[in-house]
């Protein structure tokens, strides 16, 4: 049974877009065994880490399951949503998180990114241990090994090139599908909330409660003016941390995609892409950041390449971010 596999090579055959669509059709259908929400949350976690792959298209488990644990924690502990299709039972990961919460007397209101770093790390390790048994083999089996290989001993997975291209090309619509299917699943097995309310929670489940730490890094390292209009940055309250590639697309916070923007620019840019001369400016900014040693110790910066940012910009446009924003004249 594929679910119990420990090491599995990807099927080497080239797969077409049609093949990947048919796998997703299967995963999202009632034919696929979805007794828990694992598959939907794993797909969301892969999407969040699409631009964290190394040059071999590998992701280590820590990266993938940091997203997975965060999403689960926020759904299970913060929103109190059951993740299994049986009453009186709990999904393995769900029990793991609830036991941890009880043992450390953590309040329900605490979202994942507010937990101390040490606790986050311990939780991620526990979730990895659990997920090796149930999660990694399940989607591998559903997709006939077409989308990734994985190794539970070395704790990494490797996306196949055709699947990776597919995910970049259809990132937004796959995210919509995964969120919607997760909402439908949760609606069936939870008393509180309708699809619309659940979707809202799911769409925001990965959002950090504060970007303050990024603001301080950016301010201390180089930036004392608005990235877009050049207005001086005087205080925290009048300025924002802006996701250059909109958060609604990338769904993650990477230093190389974040800039300080004045409130006026941030508000009017909102969910749009900035004109491509700002792309060039950001690539130059990131090159400068990499010359500062302390930044190079950050995993997000280690995995950054100018090509990734360039790709991400192009794929944002092809995924529908076609409205291009420029700052208003001051
Ligand atoms: Zn500005």
From TrEMBL:
This is HNH endonuclease. Residues 216-267 form the HNH nuclease domain. Coiled coil: none annotated. One of its GO terms (molecular function) is zinc ion binding. It comes from the Bacteria. Keywords: Endonuclease, Hydrolase, Nuclease. SMART domains: HNHc. The keyword Membrane does not apply. InterPro entries: HNH (IPR002711), HNH_nuc (IPR003615). The keyword Nuclease applies. Pfam families: HNH.
């Amino acid at each position: 049974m594929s679910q119990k596999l420990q090491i599995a090579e990807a099927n080497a055959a080239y797969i077409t877009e049609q093949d990947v669509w048919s796998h997703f059709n299967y995963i999202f259908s009632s034919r696929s065994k979805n007794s828990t929400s694992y598959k939907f949350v794993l797909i969301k976690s892969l999407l969040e880490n699409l631009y964290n792959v190394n040059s071999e298209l590998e992701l280590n488990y820590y990266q993938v399951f940091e997203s997975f644990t965060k999403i689960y924690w926020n759904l299970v502990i913060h929103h109190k949503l059951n993740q299994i299709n049986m009453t009186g039972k709990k999904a393995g990961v769900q029990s793991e998180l609830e036991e941890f919460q009880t043992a450390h007397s953590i309040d329900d209101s605490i979202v994942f990114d507010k937990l101390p770093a040490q606790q986050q790390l311990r939780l991620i390790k526990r979730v990895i241990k659990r997920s090796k048994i149930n999660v990694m083999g399940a989607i591998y089996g559903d997709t006939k090994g077409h989308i990734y290989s994985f190794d539970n001993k070395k704790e990494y997975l490797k996306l196949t090139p055709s699947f990776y291209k597919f995910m970049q090309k259809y990132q937004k619509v796959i995210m919509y599908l995964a969120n919607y299917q997760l909402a439908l699943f949760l609606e069936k097995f939870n008393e509180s909330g309708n699809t619309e309310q659940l979707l809202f929670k799911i769409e925001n489940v990965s959002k950090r409660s504060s970007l303050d730490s990024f603001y301080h890094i950016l301010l201390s390292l180089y930036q004392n003016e608005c990235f877009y209009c050049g207005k001086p940055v005087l205080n925290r309250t009048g300025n924002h941390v802006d996701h250059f590639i909109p958060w609604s697309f990338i769904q993650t916070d990477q230093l190389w995609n974040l800039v300080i923007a004045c409130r006026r620019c941030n508000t009017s840019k909102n969910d749009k892409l900035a004109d491509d001369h700002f792309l060039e400016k950001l690539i130059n900014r990131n090159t400068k950041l990499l010359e500062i040693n302390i930044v190079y110790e950050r995993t997000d910066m280690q995995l950054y390449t100018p090509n990734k940012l360039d790709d991400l910009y192009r794929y944002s446009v092809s995924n529908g971010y076609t409205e291009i924003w420029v700052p208003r004249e001051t």
